[in-house]
Input
Amino acid sequence: MDNEEQVARANVTKNKRVALAALKRKKILQDQLDKIMGSRMTIETQVMAIEAANVNMETFNAMKIGTEAMKNIHKKLDIDKVEDTMDDMKEQVDLANGVSEAISQPQLFGAELDEDELNAELEGLEQEELDKQLLNAEAAPVALPKVPVASVRQGLSPLHQASPARQQQAHEEDEDDELAELRESMGMAA
Output
């Protein structure tokens, strides 16, 4: 087409007939090219439509095969069979748990143990241990209320005031009395 245009340009002033024939050939070639391009576009569109239809057909066939496979599987399987299998499985798990529990229990081989008797003995041992701890424990500090000593001493004559040593002894005697009361309330002998 470019060649025909060049011929037309070259002969436009020299030979109009040759230039006009070149332009006609160019026009015919252009029309022919447009028809070929249109046909090609139609063919490409048709190829894409065929490919899409082929993909759709393959998808449909795969879905059909899948549906048939599921039907075949479900022919052998129904909800009652599933529930029966689940019940059987639960029974087997319960049986396995029972066996495991039975195996894990210590066997005394004829020796019968009374749980209440064992618990009572355990409580007795615990009480003995607590008693030992209380007897060996240091005397717990007893917090006595603070009495304003100065105001009390001011009201007493110098003869009636106790010496610091006497006050300490009285305090220790009070602590001993309280400890004896505590032991008695707990049922412990002094």
Summary: The two ends are 133 Å apart (CA to CA). The chain has a mean pLDDT of 82. The helical segments are 2-11, 16-75, 79-104, 115-136, 149-155, 164-185.
